[in-house]
UniProtKB/TrEMBL annotation:
<feature type="transmembrane region" description="Helical">
    <location>
        <begin position="107"/>
        <end position="125"/>
    </location>
</feature>
<feature type="transmembrane region" description="Helical">
    <location>
        <begin position="213"/>
        <end position="232"/>
    </location>
</feature>
<feature type="transmembrane region" description="Helical">
    <location>
        <begin position="12"/>
        <end position="31"/>
    </location>
</feature>
<protein>
    <submittedName>
        <fullName>EamA family transporter</fullName>
    </submittedName>
</protein>
<feature type="transmembrane region" description="Helical">
    <location>
        <begin position="37"/>
        <end position="60"/>
    </location>
</feature>
<feature type="domain" description="EamA">
    <location>
        <begin position="160"/>
        <end position="285"/>
    </location>
</feature>
<feature type="transmembrane region" description="Helical">
    <location>
        <begin position="134"/>
        <end position="151"/>
    </location>
</feature>
<dbReference type="GO" id="GO:0016020">
    <property type="term" value="C:membrane"/>
</dbReference>
<dbReference type="InterPro" id="IPR037185">
    <property type="entry name" value="EmrE-like"/>
</dbReference>
<feature type="transmembrane region" description="Helical">
    <location>
        <begin position="157"/>
        <end position="175"/>
    </location>
</feature>
<dbReference type="Pfam" id="PF00892">
    <property type="entry name" value="EamA"/>
</dbReference>
<keyword id="KW-0472">Membrane</keyword>
<feature type="transmembrane region" description="Helical">
    <location>
        <begin position="269"/>
        <end position="286"/>
    </location>
</feature>
<keyword id="KW-1133">Transmembrane helix</keyword>
<keyword id="KW-0812">Transmembrane</keyword>
<feature type="transmembrane region" description="Helical">
    <location>
        <begin position="187"/>
        <end position="207"/>
    </location>
</feature>
<dbReference type="InterPro" id="IPR000620">
    <property type="entry name" value="EamA_dom"/>
</dbReference>
Length: 305
Protein backbone atom coordinates (compact mmCIF):
# COMPACT_ATOMS: atom_id res chain seq x y z
CA UNK A 1 0.00 0.00 0.00
CA UNK A 2 2.84 2.37 0.88
CA UNK A 3 4.51 1.67 -2.44
CA UNK A 4 1.28 2.35 -4.33
CA UNK A 5 0.81 5.59 -2.41
CA UNK A 6 4.36 6.67 -3.22
CA UNK A 7 3.85 5.93 -6.91
CA UNK A 8 0.56 7.83 -6.92
CA UNK A 9 2.17 10.84 -5.20
CA UNK A 10 5.05 10.80 -7.68
CA UNK A 11 2.55 10.67 -10.53
CA UNK A 12 0.64 13.62 -9.08
CA UNK A 13 3.85 15.65 -8.77
CA UNK A 14 4.80 14.90 -12.37
CA UNK A 15 1.32 15.87 -13.60
CA UNK A 16 1.54 19.09 -11.57
CA UNK A 17 4.92 19.79 -13.16
CA UNK A 18 3.48 19.28 -16.65
CA UNK A 19 0.55 21.60 -15.94
CA UNK A 20 2.84 24.28 -14.50
CA UNK A 21 5.08 24.06 -17.57
CA UNK A 22 2.11 24.42 -19.93
CA UNK A 23 0.78 27.39 -17.94
CA UNK A 24 4.23 28.98 -17.86
CA UNK A 25 4.57 28.61 -21.63
CA UNK A 26 1.15 30.19 -22.11
CA UNK A 27 2.16 33.15 -19.93
CA UNK A 28 5.40 33.56 -21.89
CA UNK A 29 3.45 33.60 -25.16
CA UNK A 30 1.04 36.15 -23.67
CA UNK A 31 4.04 38.20 -22.52
CA UNK A 32 5.43 38.16 -26.06
CA UNK A 33 2.10 39.22 -27.57
CA UNK A 34 1.78 42.05 -25.04
CA UNK A 35 5.34 43.14 -25.84
CA UNK A 36 4.59 43.24 -29.57
CA UNK A 37 1.50 45.36 -28.93
CA UNK A 38 3.40 47.82 -26.71
CA UNK A 39 6.49 48.29 -28.91
CA UNK A 40 4.17 49.22 -31.76
CA UNK A 41 3.42 52.47 -29.89
CA UNK A 42 6.38 52.98 -27.57
CA UNK A 43 10.16 52.77 -27.88
CA UNK A 44 11.79 49.48 -26.91
CA UNK A 45 13.79 51.28 -24.21
CA UNK A 46 10.70 52.70 -22.55
CA UNK A 47 8.99 49.29 -22.54
CA UNK A 48 12.12 47.70 -21.03
CA UNK A 49 12.24 50.27 -18.22
CA UNK A 50 8.63 49.89 -17.08
CA UNK A 51 8.69 46.11 -17.67
CA UNK A 52 11.71 45.83 -15.38
CA UNK A 53 9.99 47.88 -12.68
CA UNK A 54 6.99 45.56 -12.97
CA UNK A 55 9.25 42.51 -12.59
CA UNK A 56 10.40 43.79 -9.19
CA UNK A 57 6.82 43.55 -7.93
CA UNK A 58 7.39 39.79 -8.04
CA UNK A 59 11.14 39.74 -7.39
CA UNK A 60 11.04 42.14 -4.41
CA UNK A 61 9.68 39.65 -1.83
CA UNK A 62 12.04 36.96 -3.14
CA UNK A 63 15.05 39.25 -2.72
CA UNK A 64 14.00 40.13 0.85
CA UNK A 65 13.55 36.46 1.72
CA UNK A 66 16.94 35.54 0.28
CA UNK A 67 18.67 38.60 1.74
CA UNK A 68 19.82 41.53 -0.45
CA UNK A 69 23.51 40.89 0.27
CA UNK A 70 23.22 37.43 -1.31
CA UNK A 71 22.98 39.20 -4.66
CA UNK A 72 26.64 40.17 -4.35
CA UNK A 73 27.93 36.77 -3.22
CA UNK A 74 28.16 35.15 -6.63
CA UNK A 75 30.60 32.78 -8.29
CA UNK A 76 32.77 33.77 -11.24
CA UNK A 77 31.71 37.40 -11.61
CA UNK A 78 33.13 37.66 -15.15
CA UNK A 79 30.87 34.90 -16.43
CA UNK A 80 27.94 36.40 -14.49
CA UNK A 81 28.45 39.66 -16.40
CA UNK A 82 28.60 37.82 -19.74
CA UNK A 83 25.38 35.93 -18.94
CA UNK A 84 23.58 39.13 -17.91
CA UNK A 85 24.78 40.86 -21.11
CA UNK A 86 23.54 38.00 -23.29
CA UNK A 87 20.20 37.81 -21.49
CA UNK A 88 19.73 41.57 -21.93
CA UNK A 89 20.57 41.37 -25.64
CA UNK A 90 18.05 38.55 -25.93
CA UNK A 91 15.20 40.63 -24.50
CA UNK A 92 16.06 43.86 -26.35
CA UNK A 93 16.56 42.13 -29.71
CA UNK A 94 13.35 40.15 -29.29
CA UNK A 95 11.30 43.32 -28.85
CA UNK A 96 13.17 45.03 -31.70
CA UNK A 97 12.34 42.11 -34.01
CA UNK A 98 8.72 41.65 -32.93
CA UNK A 99 8.05 45.35 -33.55
CA UNK A 100 8.34 44.65 -37.30
CA UNK A 101 7.74 40.92 -37.77
CA UNK A 102 4.76 38.66 -36.99
CA UNK A 103 4.95 37.02 -33.58
CA UNK A 104 5.11 33.49 -35.03
CA UNK A 105 8.06 34.44 -37.27
CA UNK A 106 10.16 35.71 -34.36
CA UNK A 107 9.14 32.79 -32.15
CA UNK A 108 10.29 30.39 -34.86
CA UNK A 109 13.82 31.83 -34.60
CA UNK A 110 13.69 31.42 -30.82
CA UNK A 111 12.50 27.82 -31.05
CA UNK A 112 15.96 27.05 -32.45
CA UNK A 113 17.49 28.09 -29.12
CA UNK A 114 17.75 24.53 -27.72
CA UNK A 115 19.42 23.43 -30.97
CA UNK A 116 22.04 26.15 -30.50
CA UNK A 117 22.42 25.04 -26.88
CA UNK A 118 23.17 21.48 -27.99
CA UNK A 119 25.94 22.73 -30.29
CA UNK A 120 27.38 25.27 -27.85
CA UNK A 121 27.35 22.84 -24.93
CA UNK A 122 29.70 20.57 -26.87
CA UNK A 123 32.33 23.31 -27.03
CA UNK A 124 31.78 25.24 -23.80
CA UNK A 125 30.47 22.66 -21.34
CA UNK A 126 32.24 19.54 -22.55
CA UNK A 127 28.90 17.75 -23.09
CA UNK A 128 29.78 15.36 -25.90
CA UNK A 129 27.11 14.75 -28.53
CA UNK A 130 27.12 11.98 -31.13
CA UNK A 131 26.84 12.17 -34.89
CA UNK A 132 23.06 11.72 -34.80
CA UNK A 133 22.56 14.83 -32.69
CA UNK A 134 25.09 16.76 -34.80
CA UNK A 135 23.00 15.83 -37.83
CA UNK A 136 19.86 17.04 -36.02
CA UNK A 137 21.65 20.31 -35.20
CA UNK A 138 22.48 20.84 -38.88
CA UNK A 139 18.92 20.01 -39.91
CA UNK A 140 17.65 22.47 -37.32
CA UNK A 141 19.92 25.16 -38.77
CA UNK A 142 18.45 24.36 -42.19
CA UNK A 143 15.00 24.99 -40.74
CA UNK A 144 16.17 28.39 -39.48
CA UNK A 145 17.48 29.29 -42.95
CA UNK A 146 14.15 28.29 -44.53
CA UNK A 147 12.26 30.40 -41.97
CA UNK A 148 14.57 33.32 -42.75
CA UNK A 149 13.52 33.00 -46.42
CA UNK A 150 16.61 32.32 -48.57
CA UNK A 151 16.63 35.57 -50.50
CA UNK A 152 17.60 39.20 -49.97
CA UNK A 153 14.79 39.37 -47.40
CA UNK A 154 16.77 37.17 -45.03
CA UNK A 155 19.18 40.07 -44.61
CA UNK A 156 16.45 42.42 -43.43
CA UNK A 157 17.27 44.11 -40.13
CA UNK A 158 14.28 42.71 -38.17
CA UNK A 159 15.14 39.16 -39.26
CA UNK A 160 18.73 39.65 -38.18
CA UNK A 161 17.46 41.01 -34.85
CA UNK A 162 15.47 37.81 -34.35
CA UNK A 163 18.37 35.59 -35.36
CA UNK A 164 20.90 37.42 -33.16
CA UNK A 165 18.43 37.47 -30.27
CA UNK A 166 17.87 33.71 -30.45
CA UNK A 167 21.64 33.11 -30.44
CA UNK A 168 22.08 35.43 -27.43
CA UNK A 169 19.26 33.51 -25.76
CA UNK A 170 21.10 30.21 -26.33
CA UNK A 171 24.36 31.64 -24.97
CA UNK A 172 22.56 32.86 -21.85
CA UNK A 173 21.19 29.34 -21.31
CA UNK A 174 24.66 27.84 -21.60
CA UNK A 175 25.99 30.39 -19.10
CA UNK A 176 23.05 29.65 -16.78
CA UNK A 177 23.95 25.97 -16.80
CA UNK A 178 27.58 26.76 -16.10
CA UNK A 179 26.53 29.00 -13.19
CA UNK A 180 23.81 26.64 -11.94
CA UNK A 181 24.92 26.92 -8.29
CA UNK A 182 23.75 30.57 -8.31
CA UNK A 183 20.17 30.98 -7.09
CA UNK A 184 17.39 31.74 -9.56
CA UNK A 185 16.53 34.91 -7.64
CA UNK A 186 20.07 36.25 -8.03
CA UNK A 187 20.30 35.36 -11.72
CA UNK A 188 16.95 36.92 -12.60
CA UNK A 189 17.49 40.00 -10.43
CA UNK A 190 20.77 40.99 -12.11
CA UNK A 191 19.24 40.22 -15.49
CA UNK A 192 16.32 42.53 -14.66
CA UNK A 193 18.62 45.30 -13.37
CA UNK A 194 20.63 45.12 -16.60
CA UNK A 195 17.45 45.34 -18.68
CA UNK A 196 16.38 48.37 -16.62
CA UNK A 197 19.71 50.17 -17.20
CA UNK A 198 19.67 49.28 -20.91
CA UNK A 199 16.11 50.53 -21.20
CA UNK A 200 17.04 53.85 -19.58
CA UNK A 201 19.88 54.34 -22.08
CA UNK A 202 17.78 53.36 -25.09
CA UNK A 203 14.85 55.54 -24.03
CA UNK A 204 16.88 58.76 -23.91
CA UNK A 205 15.25 61.09 -26.41
CA UNK A 206 12.52 58.54 -27.16
CA UNK A 207 10.40 58.68 -24.00
CA UNK A 208 6.74 59.28 -24.76
CA UNK A 209 3.80 60.21 -22.57
CA UNK A 210 1.38 57.35 -22.05
CA UNK A 211 -2.09 56.79 -20.68
CA UNK A 212 -2.67 54.94 -17.41
CA UNK A 213 -3.79 51.89 -19.41
CA UNK A 214 -0.46 51.81 -21.27
CA UNK A 215 1.61 52.21 -18.09
CA UNK A 216 -0.39 49.38 -16.52
CA UNK A 217 0.24 47.20 -19.56
CA UNK A 218 4.01 47.72 -19.34
CA UNK A 219 4.03 46.93 -15.61
CA UNK A 220 1.88 43.86 -16.21
CA UNK A 221 4.41 42.75 -18.84
CA UNK A 222 7.07 42.42 -16.13
CA UNK A 223 4.72 40.67 -13.72
CA UNK A 224 3.63 38.12 -16.35
CA UNK A 225 7.21 37.36 -17.42
CA UNK A 226 8.34 36.88 -13.80
CA UNK A 227 5.40 34.61 -12.98
CA UNK A 228 6.08 32.54 -16.11
CA UNK A 229 9.70 32.12 -15.08
CA UNK A 230 8.74 31.02 -11.57
CA UNK A 231 6.16 28.53 -12.87
CA UNK A 232 8.66 26.90 -15.21
CA UNK A 233 11.38 26.84 -12.56
CA UNK A 234 8.99 25.07 -10.18
CA UNK A 235 7.83 22.63 -12.87
CA UNK A 236 11.43 21.51 -13.44
CA UNK A 237 11.66 20.59 -9.76
CA UNK A 238 8.53 18.41 -9.94
CA UNK A 239 8.92 16.56 -13.24
CA UNK A 240 11.83 15.25 -15.34
CA UNK A 241 13.31 17.76 -17.78
CA UNK A 242 13.21 15.09 -20.49
CA UNK A 243 9.42 15.03 -20.17
CA UNK A 244 8.98 18.80 -19.94
CA UNK A 245 11.47 19.92 -22.60
CA UNK A 246 9.29 19.14 -25.65
CA UNK A 247 6.40 21.11 -24.12
CA UNK A 248 8.27 24.35 -24.85
CA UNK A 249 7.19 24.00 -28.47
CA UNK A 250 3.64 24.87 -27.40
CA UNK A 251 5.04 28.43 -27.37
CA UNK A 252 5.03 28.35 -31.17
CA UNK A 253 1.41 27.18 -31.25
CA UNK A 254 0.37 29.95 -28.86
CA UNK A 255 2.34 32.49 -30.91
CA UNK A 256 0.39 31.51 -34.03
CA UNK A 257 -2.96 31.65 -32.19
CA UNK A 258 -2.30 34.95 -30.40
CA UNK A 259 -0.73 36.47 -33.51
CA UNK A 260 -3.88 35.70 -35.47
CA UNK A 261 -6.32 36.81 -32.75
CA UNK A 262 -4.63 40.11 -31.86
CA UNK A 263 -2.68 41.09 -34.98
CA UNK A 264 -4.41 39.13 -37.76
CA UNK A 265 -1.05 37.55 -38.66
CA UNK A 266 -1.13 34.28 -40.60
CA UNK A 267 2.19 32.41 -40.97
CA UNK A 268 3.20 31.73 -44.55
CA UNK A 269 4.30 28.36 -45.91
CA UNK A 270 8.03 28.95 -45.42
CA UNK A 271 7.60 29.83 -41.76
CA UNK A 272 5.46 26.74 -41.18
CA UNK A 273 7.93 24.46 -42.99
CA UNK A 274 10.93 26.00 -41.21
CA UNK A 275 9.19 25.77 -37.83
CA UNK A 276 8.27 22.12 -38.43
CA UNK A 277 11.89 21.22 -39.27
CA UNK A 278 13.17 23.05 -36.17
CA UNK A 279 10.63 21.32 -33.91
CA UNK A 280 11.41 17.84 -35.30
CA UNK A 281 15.17 18.42 -34.97
CA UNK A 282 14.77 19.76 -31.43
CA UNK A 283 12.57 16.85 -30.35
CA UNK A 284 15.10 14.38 -31.74
CA UNK A 285 17.91 16.04 -29.78
CA UNK A 286 15.87 15.82 -26.59
CA UNK A 287 15.04 12.19 -27.37
CA UNK A 288 18.71 11.28 -27.79
CA UNK A 289 19.59 13.09 -24.56
CA UNK A 290 16.85 11.16 -22.80
CA UNK A 291 18.29 7.88 -24.08
CA UNK A 292 21.69 8.91 -22.75
CA UNK A 293 20.09 10.11 -19.49
CA UNK A 294 21.90 13.43 -19.79
CA UNK A 295 19.09 15.86 -20.41
CA UNK A 296 20.14 19.11 -18.65
CA UNK A 297 17.45 21.05 -16.80
CA UNK A 298 18.56 24.19 -18.62
CA UNK A 299 17.65 22.66 -22.00
CA UNK A 300 14.22 24.16 -21.31
CA UNK A 301 14.30 27.93 -21.78
CA UNK A 302 13.19 29.54 -18.49
CA UNK A 303 12.79 32.93 -20.16
CA UNK A 304 14.53 35.71 -21.75
CA UNK A 305 11.51 37.65 -22.56
Amino acid sequence: MTTKTGVANAGNLIMTGVLLMLLGDLLFALNDAMGKWLVASFAVGQVLVIRSVGAFIVLGPMILRQGPMALFRVEQKGLQIIRVFMATCDVALFYAAVAYLPLADVMTFYMAGPIYVAALSHFFLGEKIGWRRWLAVLIGFAGVVIALRPSTAMLSLPSLFGLAGSFAFALSLVMSRYLRSTSDTTLVTWQTIAALVTGIVLSIGHWQPAALFDWSGMLLLGVVASCAHLLITRSLKLAPASLLAPLQYTLLLWAIILGYLFFNDIPDTQIIVGAAIIVVAGLFIFHRKNLKETVPVEAVPPDGH
